[in-house]
Amino acid sequence: MIADIDGTLVTKEKLLTPKSVQAVDRLNEAGIIFGVTTGRPPAGVRMLIESLPHLRFIAGFNGAVIVRRDFWVFAQNLLPAAAVEQVVQIILEHKMDVWLYTDKDWLVCDLRAYRVDREEKTVQFPPKVTATFDGLCDRVAKIVGVSENYEAVAHCERNVQERCGASVSAARSQPYYLDVTHPKANKGEVVLMASQFFGIAPQEIATIGDMANDITMFKKSGMSIAMGNASPEVQRAATCVTASNEEEGFAAAVDDFILPQEDTSAA
């Protein structure tokens, strides 16, 4: 089973509930491998490691950098510098802020910009400030376009997809975030990677998420579960729909759709 984190595995306050922890324990008891995929950098998932001793892998940056639970890197897909420069220019044309995540650092131009403080609390490490991204486009794992103008973010998503084509993967991870990664760094590719690495057919993998960028993994997995807080578009793309992340939707999905059900019918 592969789970998205924000809006899925954790609450709005970015908390992992006891019921979610217990659900992952039950997956392990049933012999089911559990991993997570997220737009966060791998280091931004460190706070979950102690609570989830059975977590096997973290696909950070939507699959751009994939690590074991000890943070040993076993796969990465970084963006070519030319693609980074083009995407940064497109985002700036839409009057949006740009964040660059390299394989080691998070780079921003303004610490006071929209959602920088919220992101720092989420990933639990600070960004580095730079006046310009010139000369910093090598080893970029993810570019984020950020704006409180949701229409601008949606328009920028379409524009990046049209102008960059297959050279990048561009999808909104939140209404205010446009995530741009290597074309092989999307959640659908994470499913295929897990299938190959663990020797499990994609049809035997379940995925769960809440945002548009989770649809790529829904399409590649045998079972897909949308959260109750997901949009109608995301819910339509899934096999099943569970409760919201504020109503223990992850734990409910594990019990309702993943684990074997006891036969309570009359003999």
Helix content: 25-40%
| Main structural class | alpha/beta
Strand content: 15-25%
Q: Give the SSE order as H and E letters.
A: EHEHEEEHEEHEEHEEHEHEHEH
Give the rounded overall mean pLDDT. Answer: 95
CATH topology category name of the largest domain? Rossmann fold
CATH 2nd-level architecture of the largest domain: 3-Layer(aba) Sandwich
Report the radius of gyration as a whole number of Å.
Answer: 18 Å
The number of helices is: 9
Described by strand count, sense and barrel closure, the largest sheet is:
8 strands, mixed
Look at the structure and name the CATH superfamily of the largest domain: HAD superfamily/HAD-like
Described by its quaternary structure, the protein is single chain
Number of β-strand runs: 14
Low-confidence segments, given as residue ranges, are none
CATH class of the largest domain: Alpha Beta
List the domain count as a whole number: 2
Q: What overall form do the CA principal axes indicate?
A: globular
Report on the structure:
The chain is of the alpha/beta class. It is built from nine helices and 14 strands. The chain has helices spanning 18-29, 46-49, 81-93, 116-123, 150-164, 187-198, 215-220, 232-237, 249-258, and strands at 2-3, 34-37, 55-60, 65-68, 73-76, 97-102, 106-108, 128-129, 140-146, 169-174, 177-181, 206-209, 223-226, 240-241. It has an eight-stranded mixed β-sheet with strand order 5-4-3-2-1-12-13-14, with helices on both faces. A six-stranded mixed β-sheet has the order 8-7-6-9-11-10, covered by helices on one side. α1 (18-29) runs parallel beside α9 and α3 (81-93) runs antiparallel to α5. The model has no long low-confidence stretch (mean pLDDT 95).
